[in-house]
């Protein structure tokens, strides 16, 4: 009798755990990030995922990526995708409600509406950046967050760059007063913190050449550089300078903002989209058969009185042997923490500590010993006028792996049914800054 009782208890626990699993809905996927959150399996997430989207090449590519994850030889996934692809997909999604979390990564023109509608209909939201691309729609995003708080629902954006190892270590060292000192105030000419990244239209994802939708090049649908990738960089300035602190809107003051275009030839466009002609909605951006995209932008702002600069640039293709690159510096009273990714570093992100007067090498060695317990295998080398942090390959996860880290973070919030207040505040402050920067930059034309 005892054995039967134990067996029944085990079956009951198993059944309950399945019932309590998070059920995902992927809505209108159009960006490869929608698939990357499913590159691995999670015991807390039901493997049955409903997808609602119109018939399109975007949908086909999304389903193909998921199937590739299922069929790969090394640690294959086991997702079961249930697709509804009729014209009334949106109404069907709202009627059927086959899950509790909506995953959004696609055409950004619709994203703010999708977020607000999802919240009003009782869904939690895990959204790829950016949550808003048009300044006039920021109020709708703010309403979505307010309604989410009232309805006890979660809204969270996918900030993958927090999981990059050099950024993690830069943040760790910036909090060590004995090594870094304190963040300087900086100036327009020499900001206290700089985040700059270069991206490329032509690249590979999971070993396959990336096919981008044509709308990706329409900034009314994808968003300009100041509101797109800049969301990551602004997030890092908040997260590294003032970790787990709520940044109020009035504590961030926009100083300058500008935008400029990247030119693509018709051959370039065909290579990354597979299309031999430009869609009509791209006509406003075409001159002499070349496509000009406002993908680039820079903004300068003060953050709690400290000067910060964020810059994003897009090229067509990276030089052979390279890829997307990132530059960052945090300037302290005792040392500067600098991330470089040049030919000298073999285009691998590398963190340097540039000491100043008052830098304590003994304190630095002790700090690195402590950090080595948390990040096994890290070392430091004296490079004459600076120190280099040597990071083992075991800690260098690729960009695609970071989506799993963000998803696991969201799962923990879901279990607690709460996102930290500082995260919520900072998301709104971040998007208020990016949309304000775009509004200011659009007053002046750059080429």
Can you put this structure into words, describing what you see?
This protein has 447 residues and is α/β, with parallel strands linked by helices. The chain has 2 domains: 2-159, 3-Layer(aba) Sandwich (Rossmann fold), CATH 3.40.50.720; 161-408 and 418-441, 2-Layer Sandwich (Dihydrodipicolinate Reductase, domain 2). It is 34% helix and 24% strand. Strands 7, 10, 11, 12, 13, 14, 15, 16, 17 and 18 form a 10-stranded mixed sheet that branches. It has a 6-stranded parallel sheet with strand order 3-2-1-4-5-6. Strands 8-9 form a two-stranded antiparallel ribbon. Helix 5 (111-120) runs parallel beside helix 6 (138-151), helix 7 (165-174) packs parallel to helix 9 and helix 9 packs across helix 13. The protein is globular, with a radius of gyration of 23 Å. It starts with a helix and ends in a 6-residue tail after the last helix.
Secondary-structure content class: alpha/beta
Amount of helix: 25-40%
What overall geometry do the principal axes of the alpha carbons give?
Answer: globular
The averaged pLDDT comes out at: 93
Rg value:
23 Å
CATH class assignment of the largest domain? Alpha Beta
**Can you count the beta strands?**
18
Tell me what portion of residues adopts beta-strand conformation. 15-25%
Query: How many structural units, i.e. domains?
Result: 2
Summed up, the helix count is 13
Q: Major sheet, described briefly?
A: 10 strands, mixed
* Unreliable residue stretches: 1-19
Assign the CATH architecture of the largest domain. 2-Layer Sandwich
Q: Please, what is the CATH homologous superfamily of the largest domain?
A: Dihydrodipicolinate Reductase, domain 2
Through-space gap between termini = 80 Å
Query: What is the name of the CATH topology of the largest domain?
Result: Dihydrodipicolinate Reductase, domain 2
């Amino acid at each position: 009798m005892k054995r039967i009782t134990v067996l029944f208890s085990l079956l009951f626990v198993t059944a309950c755990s399945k019932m309590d699993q998070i059920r995902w809905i992927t809505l209108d996927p159009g960006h490869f990030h929608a698939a990357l959150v499913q590159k691995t399996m999670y015991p807390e997430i039901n493997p049955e995922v409903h997808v609602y989207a119109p018939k399109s090449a975007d949908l086909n590519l999304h389903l193909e990526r998921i199937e590739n994850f299922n069929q790969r030889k090394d640690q294959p996934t086991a997702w079961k995708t249930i697709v509804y692809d009729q014209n009334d997909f949106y109404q069907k999604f709202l009627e059927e409600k086959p899950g509790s979390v909506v995953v959004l990564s696609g055409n950004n023109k619709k994203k703010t509406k999708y977020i607000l509608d999802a919240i009003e209909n009782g869904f939690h939201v895990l959204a790829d950046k950016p949550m808003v691309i048009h300044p006039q729609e920021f109020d709708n995003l703010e309403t979505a967050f307010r309604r989410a708080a009232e309805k006890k629902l979660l809204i969270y954006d996918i900030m993958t760059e927090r999981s990059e190892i050099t950024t993690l270590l830069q943040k760790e060292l910036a909090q060590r007063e004995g090594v870094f000192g304190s963040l300087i105030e900086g100036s327009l000419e020499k900001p206290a913190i700089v985040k700059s990244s270069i991206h490329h239209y032509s690249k590979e994802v999971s070993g396959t050449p990336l096919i981008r939708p044509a709308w990706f090049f329409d900034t009314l649908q994808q968003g300009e550089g100041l509101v797109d990738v800049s969301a990551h960089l602004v997030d890092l300035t908040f997260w590294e300078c003032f970790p787990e602190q709520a940044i109020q809107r009035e504590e961030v003051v926009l100083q300058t903002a500008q935008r400029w275009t990247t030119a693509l030839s018709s051959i370039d466009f065909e290579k990354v989209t597979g299309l031999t002609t430009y869609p009509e909605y791209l006509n406003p951006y075409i001159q002499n058969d070349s496509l000009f995209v406002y993908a680039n932008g820079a903004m300068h702002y003060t953050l709690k009185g400290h000067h910060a600069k964020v810059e994003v640039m897009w090229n067509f293709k990276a030089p052979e042997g390279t890829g997307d690159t990132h530059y960052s510096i945090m300037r302290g009273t005792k040392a500067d923490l600098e991330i470089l990714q040049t030919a000298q570093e073999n285009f691998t992100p590398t963190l340097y500590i540039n000491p100043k007067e008052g830098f304590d090498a003994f304190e630095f060695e002790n700090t690195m010993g402590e950090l080595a317990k948390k990040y096994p295998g890290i070392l430091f080398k004296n490079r004459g006028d600076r120190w280099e942090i040597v990071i083992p390959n075991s800690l260098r996860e690729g960009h695609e792996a970071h989506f799993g880290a963000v998803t696991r973070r969201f799962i923990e919030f879901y279990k607690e049914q709460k996102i930290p207040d500082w995260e919520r505040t900072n998301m709104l402050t971040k998007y208020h800054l990016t949309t304000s920067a775009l509004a200011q930059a659009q007053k002046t034309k750059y080429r």
